[in-house]
């Protein structure tokens, strides 16, 4: 018996080492450190199923290793004919019944959690956000509050927020691993899910349904702030004056260039439920440009000059006049000054 | 033992279509094939049921369908199934001429069915502007019914080829299984039509 | 038609022989060659994918090309590599295992191969004709509808043609097993690999038509403007997902059940012990196949089908663990108390058990719908299905190849190289895919062309890519082994392993009519029974007599070629009507060949008794 225990121990050590080396991933991105209701539900089941299945795996490995060691053909056994066994009723019953029990242990909490997460009976009493998935950006419409934004979605901590999701083109999937599992964003029907973040933070969100060349760049952020900060953010956003003239001359040029180059045909500043392109009301507050670039002026100028090089297959390329370096620079200055709220990703703690 | 002798015995056995291993294999193979066809049509029916109300402001099933013509088509196809049974009966009695006669009638009924179907489709297109591209319902309707019509057409070609090829040489153990498998296929097409009649036309008038 | 005439021949007649063959053993060679070729192609695509993901924000491949790679890797491996390789093994072995001289429909058998081959070539022509399909191997609508160019059209027509071939092959096997078993070979005496072939064929028969319909709808939408998946006209893209997975889930059992079957035979042979719980094994296989049709929506937990559907499909999915567990434990019990010989074939089988158990374990974990909200469409899923498909199917194919190579080709694969390739591939496999479970949970969705810096995903991806190179080396060693064996391999005789089933009662390689006299089967493991209780070889069930054989024919090849040409024309006629010429020419070739086949009598020929008696000496 000592032999296989030793082997098992070393196997166990090796596995744990591998896991430790790999780590649990980046905080606020990984599903392994749940920080929201849905992610916690999933995690509980992940842990339960891992335990149950590891139990089976360990038994299989033990029997397998013993069988290999004990019954391997040794020297001098070349002509040995083992007893031909047809089967064994008791044994076969045992390894039919035990898996059934194990499956039941897993099935009951699975069904309970499935119904729990699909429950949207009280949706109207909570914050509702209508989400539109687009190639390759996200539109967020707080219909009741009459706020529209994109890429960064603000929610209060400790509250259920209902997301009503529809796609404008192909199927996407809304996934914020640290807060909740994913749900598909279909073009034909509104899918509703709720999320709840336990603590403040900027949570990474990703598109999880293959949607074209820039599928991997369709990131977004869920910014969970305290309920008070959330209220303040809503107020700030509602009181934005889209016509307000920027302070400095460059930004003023930028605003003019923005208007001249038909940017406004797609990009709204201020409240506008329909959106061909991302709403830019709080562009200067956003954590990323185009969903994944650091919010620096250089990045924004690069993006404005040649979006195709940054996000292949995006719908902005070719739909506006070529910009001069100067125009791009001034538009970038203007956009980065669109900072209507004091509540920014920094408010959430990172 | 030469082939001619083995396939043209003095007295034909009671079930010439299953007297050889090849015959049995053909028979069984076609049954399996029809099993696959069942899934094919089940998938088409499923698609149709999912999309039958997706008319996108185009004509609905209730506006389109007239049961008179469809009833006639049903009669034609059901009768053709019966005539093919007669043909098989005569095959088992080794009466080649009568078998050919009944198969000919089967073919005529099949052609009649197809003619009605073509008229029906033309009617929808001309009178209602209801086409394959009109709506998801249009696509699903023409695909389901068209697949069935395509099967009828294929069956007719098959039957013609069989009848013409064997017209001069009579029945033997080599071609008997071929007639038999055709007949089996033809019954299947008929059964599918019964489902189309019910699910597409009758339910289309009710719902 | 005598053997002597074909002994000395040039390359031309060798080629002609294979183009026209209807002999199941030669068709097996063709399948192995075709499937092997596509396996290497798919492997190459896999290497490009892993190189692209070796570091964050890599620019080795462009986004578009990367999507073409993943699409073609998946499609090629499933439809053009794994399945044909398994069909090759089935063709090589199953008729021998039931004591048959041939399959029920030798002509259709050949047609099935050529349709698969031309379908596969058509699909891969896309690389040179404007770009490969790029909507993923699942080709979800509406992405597949919107995909520009002709890539997805190649996907549709290539799979349609090769799928028809597979369906034909499936029907052929079904009828063969029902009507062609040797005297005494009852159903419950059939070896597990034959059972697996039979049940897999049932799955092919009932699963592929759903794909056929799905592909038709996709083609109509793309080429003729229908509205199945067009939301603006009332279409619904979820229909594609249902049809695809009604086919797709049974498809994974089509891939794994034959492997289960051949592992059963291998464990039994190399443990020198009867398969433990034979009856339970047969019924577990049936149960897995049956449940395989009931669980398709577990690929769609996140689609929003509602909690009732999700719960039902979650429970049904977990239920599959029960028959699969029965199988695993029966294999262990077969080895228990046996006399286990470890060689290359057995190594691949032994490597299968822990690998597949991990894959099955993650399978149950994925079946838990709420947990799946996290796993779905991430690298966790990628890891899971590679554990079952590589750990089950590919290990199975390699085990089967090592096991039956002497039977198929008369030479035994080199043991040393066999073991080396196993260990390199095995280690590489776990390096590549184990870490991907964690990558998925750490927030890496699948089908990501690049992953961003500073997300904690760098290390795992690097390890995975290194593992992929090990796997590539393992495959290369195996290829060298094949070449070495073809040139210098040992000729081990007819029954090198102490076989238990009927294929080992034939010559290696078997004569073209398999059995001069059909054997009389007296029980499960008929050859083993004769070895232990009889005279050591099979008792004939009939006197030597004339043997009826089918004629070779070039028509199946011509039909495949015709559909191939028509397919190319059909894809491009949307751009220019001159391509319709290709459609007409191709269809004329195909339909003309069919007409020749139906109108011209082909009674086959007989090998006469005297000739057989002469050859025996």
From TrEMBL, chain A:
One of its GO terms (biological process) is ATP synthesis coupled electron transport. It is found in: Cell membrane; Membrane. It comes from the Bacteria. Binds a copper A center. Its cofactor is Cu cation. GO terms for molecular function: copper ion binding; cytochrome-c oxidase activity; heme binding; oxidoreductase activity. Signal peptide: none annotated. GO terms for cellular component: plasma membrane. The keyword Signal does not apply. Residues 124-236 form the Cytochrome oxidase subunit II copper A binding domain. Keywords: Copper, Electron transport, Heme, Iron, Membrane, Metal-binding, Respiratory chain, Translocase, Transmembrane, Transmembrane helix, Transport. It is an enzyme of class 7 (translocase). The keyword Lyase does not apply. Residues 249-339 form the Cytochrome c domain. Its EC number is 7.1.1.9. It is a multi-pass membrane protein. It catalyses: 4 Fe(II)-[cytochrome c] + O2 + 8 H(+)(in) = 4 Fe(III)-[cytochrome c] + 2 H2O + 4 H(+)(out). InterPro entries: CcO_II, CcO_II-like_C, Copper_CuA, Cupredoxin, CuRO_CcO_Caa3_II, Cyt_c-like_dom, Cyt_c-like_dom_sf, Cyt_c_oxidase_su2. Residues 23-121 form the Cytochrome oxidase subunit II transmembrane region profile domain. Its main location: membrane. The chain crosses the membrane at residues 45-69, 90-112. PANTHER family: CYTOCHROME C OXIDASE SUBUNIT 2 (PTHR22888:SF10), CYTOCHROME C OXIDASE, SUBUNIT II (PTHR22888). Belongs to the cytochrome c oxidase subunit 2 family. Subunits I and II form the functional core of the enzyme complex. Electrons originating in cytochrome c are transferred via heme a and Cu(A) to the binuclear center formed by heme a3 and Cu(B). This is Cytochrome c oxidase subunit 2. It comes from Virgibacillus indicus. The lineage of its organism: Bacteria, Bacillati, Bacillota, Bacilli, Bacillales.
Automatic annotation (TrEMBL), chain B:
Keywords: Cell membrane, Membrane, Transmembrane, Transmembrane helix. Residues 28-205 form the Heme-copper oxidase subunit III family profile domain. One of its GO terms (biological process) is aerobic electron transport chain. GO terms for cellular component: plasma membrane. PROSITE patterns: COX3. It comes from Virgibacillus indicus. Coiled coil: none annotated. It is a multi-pass membrane protein. This is Cytochrome (Ubi)quinol oxidase subunit III. PANTHER family: CYTOCHROME C OXIDASE SUBUNIT 3 (PTHR11403:SF9), CYTOCHROME C OXIDASE SUBUNIT III (PTHR11403). GO terms for molecular function: cytochrome-c oxidase activity. SUPFAM superfamilies: Cytochrome c oxidase subunit III-like. The keyword Lyase does not apply. Belongs to the cytochrome c oxidase subunit 3 family. Its main location: membrane. It is found in: Cell membrane.
TrEMBL record, chain C:
GO terms for biological process: electron transport coupled proton transport; oxidative phosphorylation; respiratory electron transport chain. Its EC number is 7.1.1.9. Pfam families: COX1. GO terms for cellular component: plasma membrane. It is a multi-pass membrane protein. The chain crosses the membrane at residues 30-49, 69-90, 111-130, 154-180, 192-219, 239-263, 275-296, 308-333, 345-367, 379-401, 422-442, 462-484, 554-572, 578-596. InterPro entries: Cyt_c_oxase-like_su1_dom, Cyt_c_oxase-like_su1_sf, Cyt_C_Oxase_1, Cyt_c_Oxase_su1_BS, Cyt_c_oxidase_su1_bac. Residues 10-522 form the Cytochrome oxidase subunit I profile domain. It comes from the Bacteria. CDD domains: Ubiquinol_Oxidase_I. Keywords: Cell membrane, Copper, Electron transport, Heme, Iron, Membrane, Metal-binding, Respiratory chain, Translocase, Transmembrane, Transmembrane helix, Transport. It catalyses: 4 Fe(II)-[cytochrome c] + O2 + 8 H(+)(in) = 4 Fe(III)-[cytochrome c] + 2 H2O + 4 H(+)(out). PROSITE patterns: COX1, COX1_CUB. Pathway: Energy metabolism; oxidative phosphorylation. It is found in: Cell membrane. Its main location: membrane. GO terms for molecular function: cytochrome-c oxidase activity; heme binding; metal ion binding. Cytochrome c oxidase is the component of the respiratory chain that catalyzes the reduction of oxygen to water. Subunits 1-3 form the functional core of the enzyme complex. CO I is the catalytic subunit of the enzyme. Electrons originating in cytochrome c are transferred via the copper A center of subunit 2 and heme A of subunit 1 to the bimetallic center formed by heme A3 and copper B. NCBIfam families: CtaD_CoxA. Belongs to the heme-copper respiratory oxidase family. This is Cytochrome c oxidase subunit 1. The gene is ctaD.
